[in-house]
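Just curious. Protein, please.
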Amino acid sequence: VVPPALLFLPPVITAHPESYTAFTAEDIVLTCEASGNPPPKFRWVKDGQQFDPASDPQVLTSEKSGTFSVVSGDGPISKYMGKYRCYASNELGTAISEEAQLITENTPILTKEKRQRKTVEEGDKAILNCNPPSSSTPPNIHWMDKNLQHIHQSDRVTKGLDGRLYFSHVIPSDSRDDYICHAQYVTARTILPKEPIQLIVTPSNSVVWHRKPHLLHPTGSETRVLALRGQSLVLECIPKGLPTPSVTWQRLTNGVLSTSRTSTQNFGRWLRFNSIDESDQGDYECIANNSQGTAKHFFTVTVEAAPYWIKKPASNLYAPGENVRLECHAEGIPTPTITWSLNGNPLSGLDPEPRRTVHGGTLRLGDVTKSDTAVYQCEASNKHGIILVNTYIHVIELPPQILTRDMKVYRVTQGQTAVLDCETFGSPRPKIQNSDTLELVLSHAWVSQLVNGSLQISNASPKDSGSYMCSVFDSNLSIAASLDVLNRTVIISPPEHKRVQRGKSVTLTCDALVDDELRNPPPQTLWRKDGQKLHESSFDDKYTLGSSLIVANAQSEDEGLYTCEVITELDMTNASGSITVVDRPDPPFNLTLTNKQSRSLTLSWIPGNDHNSPINEFVVEYEELRSRKGHWQFLLNSSGDIQQVKIPLQPFCNYTFRVTAFNEFGRSEPSNPSETYRTPPAAPDRNPEDVRTISTEPGVLTIAWKEMDKYYFNGPGYQYKVMWRAAGHRSHWNQSAVSSSPFVVREAGTFQPFEIKVKAVNQLGEGPDPILVTGHSGEDRPLMAPQNIAITPVNGSVVQVKWVPVSRDSVQGHLLGYKIYLRRLGPQDMRGIRVQGGHESDNGDSWVVDVSGSNQVEEVLEGLRPYSKYELKMTAYNSKGEGPFSGPHEFDTPEGVPGAPASLTFDSPSETSLTLHWSPPRDPNGKLIGYLLHYQESKSLLESNNGLMKVLRINDPDVYHITLDNLDPKIFYAFYLSASTSTGPGESIVRTAATLLDGGPPSNITVTAGETNVNLSWVAGERYRNVVFYIMYLNKNGRWEMSEMINSTQSFYQLQGLQSGSQYRLSFLFNNSTFWEKEIKTEGPSNALENLGPGGFATQGWFIGLISAIVLLLLVLLILCFIKRSKGGKYSVKDKEEGQVDSEARPMKDDAFGEYSDNEEKRSVSQPSLGVESKLGSDDSLAGYGDSVDIQFNEDGSFIGQYSGHRDVPGAVGHDSSGATSPVNPMIMPPSYPGVPNSVTGILNRGN
């Protein structure tokens, strides 16, 4: 608690007035605030004279403040211009403020001026002046167009510190009439747009494109710069030259340019010092460089300093009799002067006081009393400024107190400086007592105790964490404090130096490791570009800020140094990276043609901006306006450091050129075309190529060549001189001049050799002597056929043919080869071959074999059929066609091995026997002498055969079936059947089969009742013979009804025509005995007739009328039927008989030996309805069969599941009649299968 005596305090200035420029009365506000007790009173001094703001009616003042402001008035504001100082006084002393200078100006306005028009030749430098109205606060200059878009700046076009727009050289695209300078006066809140400037760039062929660099600004060779410590400084070098010079900076004093203290801006044209100090003083050099040379400028930087404090005296309380020492030290260049004042009055003007002495910046006052309470001012000044500090001496007697609260917790991060406060109060000043523990702590070099009693720990580490105590000497006053040293914030993933292609996005990361104690509140990440804070913008999404920075649509202005700052409540750390924007180069420009000659010239150009990616290659293209207008042709390429090439030319051409640049990011747009250059004409220097004859007609010589490109005509009147003569004769040349190919010579004979030449000529002469070429006149068909044809069989399918070639004269052209015409006449002995199944021999097969090559005299013919007769003829052919046929030559091929038998099927007479049926091979390839059967046991159709192989030889070729007995019914057998000729056995047909097993009626029957039908289904046994059974059912009227015959293999049957909601009893019969019974009830409501009372429908009038109408309708129908029959309608017994047999049970053709199908039961076309005592029909029911059943197999060996047999007695059913499904694929017939009707309705539909 502050004692009452402390309520009396000398004044302390808390807010000083500041210097600035005012443009209106409302801008004038001078601040002066002070604390003290009693409250201080204020007064002002202006230009050394007393100034009373309250006496001015236009000035607004406050009773408890020294601040005053000027309200709007009619008078000029210039009367307020001057230097001001504020005085705050109470009973204990007077404090004074720093001096503030108020400058008044009128708001800048534009004077009327003429629009400027500047004309510059292409390649020259240009400078556009701004010349804004002058002001003590220089404006910010912005160059914009009429749409208020910034003029694009680059290393070629830059704005200088003086506001001018500099062009190192101009190009045609710089021409525009809206270069507008906008001067922004921030303090005056005014933007003044100047008159637009028109820049006209005129092209000039005489311009010298390669120019050494020179500096547009600054001029001369050296500049001396004076800078004040702590301020920013910018050195500027803006060059001109072609190509655009680059600017580099270096320090000459020690050769090292500090990257932490300096940065380059404005495309390298500026070297910026953000806060210069004495270490930056020295000599600097800027170097402008291009391919033509360099330019340099030297800067001598001198750093001086306004006064700044080294040590300021502190206000304090003193007890009577104490000695006071005030230290006031300041530095500056030049060295500042120190003066002391007492309550605003210089000590030099006061009476001497023996107890008070002043030596420079040290003031001593001994044996103080309460009357010495006052405010002292220490002022340091040099030519660059004045600084002032107030300090008071308050002489008072007070008991000691510790003002810092007890148990205070201090938190710092590792490496920071921790200051543990122990602020005491009292007069005389209390002394801090050091305990033994504190003495130990103070023994460390990084721990010290400050004058005010606070404990300072530098470069804190976790071992410094703990509790500390501060005690006042000779009292019982003490406080405790604790220190927590947390982990410092570290950036573990700093921003990198990234290159990004223009228009794309780039991401800089800034991931930091933060102590858990500092995560609440979460740390803040700030991003700066070249020291300026970045903000997210909602209108263009340029920046996305966070732990990562995303810069979208990167452009050249986005290049720079990017710094991320991670800020917690205790510390801050930063890291920097950079973005360099790269892109494909700008197109080259200023193409120049020099050293122009008839056959060559030199092309040079200036590279465009490479956008921070060096140019790797230049590609030169040309357009020939006479022959190839509109088509640019590749000419040559050169490396990126070459900017001129020598180009070969062709006579009589109009050339224009263009150049394209390439870097790693792609190709530039092509440059603008160069000027056109016309070469003089000359005689041809080359002849046409590919001279040849293309004669196609007998007696005609046709000479052709590849016509030359007009580009090589070399002059006007271009033609071809064609020369020819008979080969082998030294006669004169025939010649003719033509304009195009081909050239035709008539009556040249058939295929006669000629020597030919074709030469290029124009109005200026002929080309070089052409190469002689030999050709021929047109061909005709050959006159002769090959002779002495000899045919030698190699085996049953291969023969060798030899012949004597035709004579060269008879070919009448270039012999291309021979053609062999081959025709099969048939087998050697038709009587010796049995042909079964309709497979007759393929008589009349013929084909042609082309034997290419003029030197061929033999050919091997393959793919012939053994044991056959063939006829052979030959021709010779050339490009005109074939010659005459040779005489026919017949020959026979020997026997070969036969093909596989055409089919192999099986019957199973019993459980232990199989009958094999086969048909002979389609290709017997000779006389069959028998068959060879191999068979072995196999576990199933799918598993490999591994049983003992048995062999059975059948020596009669007319046998086509055989029965095997004593087979095991539990296993499958694999059969391999092959036919044999005298050459040997042929290919085998392979099948797998098993015998059929005796079966019985089905069990596991499933019943599903509908409204008018009942569905019955069961699972048929694999490999079991078919059995036939019936279904008897008893309705509630007590009448039994029977279905038709049902096969056990059909797996499904449907009873139809039942009444809904009725009870039925089903009984299944096999061999006249019941093997399964079931009670069922159909779905739906019961019959309405049964629900009527006595008399039923018979007593209902509406029912009598309905019956009468039905009877009348039936009578009419009967009359119509008799009338139709009386007209002689015929009835076909044959059609009825055919209708009784299903199409699937028709007898098989004899030539389809081995194909079997079921002979189903013959039925009448119509069946009685279910309501009358009739049998329900099934399309799959079987009649009685013979003693054996034929079992079919598919090509893979599986059972087909259809059977053949002949019914002995219609309707008779025997236990031995059977059928079976495949043991691999049992045939289950679903209720809706369209091909297998399972009800009376299905049979009737089938009959229709």
